[in-house]
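Re-run requested by the PI after the first attempt was lost when the workstation crashed. Everything re-entered from the original request form. Ligand of interest: arginine.
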Amino acid sequence: MASVTSLSDSVQQHLASALSATLPEAAGADPLLRRSDRADFQANGILALAKKAKANPRELATQVVSQVVTGDELIKDVEVSGPGFLNITIADRAITGNLAARYADETGRLGVPTAAQPGTTVIDYAQPNVAKEMHVGHLRSAVIGDSVVQLLEFTGENVVRRHHIGDWGTQFGMLIQYLDEHPHELDHKEAQVTGEEAMSNLDRLYKAARKLFDSDEEFKTRARRRVVDLQAGDPQTLAMWQKFVDESKIYFFSVFEKLDMEIQDADIVGESGYNDMLAETCRLLEESGVAVRSEGALCVFFDDIKGPDGNPVPLIVQKSDGGYGYAATDLSAIRDRVFHLKANTLLYVVDARQALHFKMVFETARRAGWLNEDVTAFQLAFGTVLGKDGKPFKTREGETVRLVDLLDEAIDRASAVVREKAQDLSEEEIAERGAQVGIGAVKYADLSTSANRDYKFDLDQMVSLNGDTSVYLQYAYARIRSILRKAGETRPAAHPALALTEAERALGLHVDAFAETVAEAAGEYAPHKLAAYLYQLASLYTSFYDKCPVLKAETPAQVENRLFLCDITARTLHQGMALLGIRTPEKL
Ligand code: ARG
């Protein structure tokens, strides 16, 4: 036993067969089932079907109702309402029974099914740039990407992660030449270099190199020659470049660790990783006529993409000096992901401001035949992180905000909140929970708005205990865990024969809808739908808890059944939060 059919799917199937028994030509039609305020579910599909069959919708609905088996198996009651809707009430026994089946799923997946024929998705996310600090703009790709990875894997999809870091290009000539002339600048006294130290080394080096580059013509010439050496694969130049990459990775890993995110070295395949493919990519595009020479550069033109002067803006695959840029790399990466990694779907979690680039790259790949109906590419474009003033987030001095500073501040604020509420927590626990709450707050604020929208980075709101925040969800979870601890010897147990109160039914029906929420959020790459579901789950739990005494319920069976509702809610919260990359501490 693993996968459990959700109540809504069961009702859906039931109605579909009642419908086709009444109206054979409606076989396979969707009864359009929705959760409803009037009853548990409402089915609206009969209206359109009646219209098509030129029948009276109320009459048709009445006939369908007469075909529906009611009882305490599944549908307790069904009635026609309005112009021909069906209002459906689920039997209490069915609610408890279905939840009990989920609870018994020994895989811990709460009965959520996995895809029968999963595909392979290559997801490009968390792609900072070598020798540069990570800023607030790198937050969203990492957080959204990580959640989409979890969601897809949970549905059974084969997921290949690709961190397309910026580790190639002209600035490396400058850095390498400088390091060559100042060989001891990256030496470390201690063997263990921390992330921040690695970054400050790089930062110092970058500034010094830049200064020399701007002031010394001869250095500039030497630096330019180095780029050519690098791209030609000169071993000494490559070895030095490797030093920069390694140093940057120490720093990236430290930031990802702070973000409580697992990144594998093998998945970091930066721009440099496609260097060997660039010439071939250009050749293929030119030979097939997809790209043409224009003023020496290799370009792809599009009818619908024009600059402000009305002239077409091409995608430049190779510059007139023979150099390759961002587009050539991305086109080569597509070939690698399609033909080598055998992807069905390419997903790019990248800033919306790169939408034109991806539009052109995808269209080029389609013309070349690398993308088609079976292999598709999609940019999961995200909006900008704004300051409280509604403008792109900057420091008071007008500089880009360093991601690490922002995370540290969130952790500080959250630790203060945890400390204030803490009852039986040690200092060590406060620090640990502070990090889990702070990072959770940052992630949740990002994930609870739909990715394509901008959002305001407002720490006060993010760590608030009230409202749609991760802290609210984490407290709900911790409260449930505390009740379960208090229950001691009394174990949660489902009693399907018990009648349920309104609050219990609402909570139970919502818990049961976890599977379809996950399927929807994964299918649409929309973690915000899962976030909204979890927030509602916590709210429904709160009203259940306000109205229904748990440990002091009337009968022992009721105590057990309510503990069971508590526990399955906790498990669902825990699983759902994990899919968002957020921890649920046992105590807060
Ligand atoms: N490194 C780039 C940046 O910081 C993002 C890379 C996005 N991925 C890609 N395949 N182009 O803007």
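Saved to the shared folder this time. The mean pLDDT is 94.
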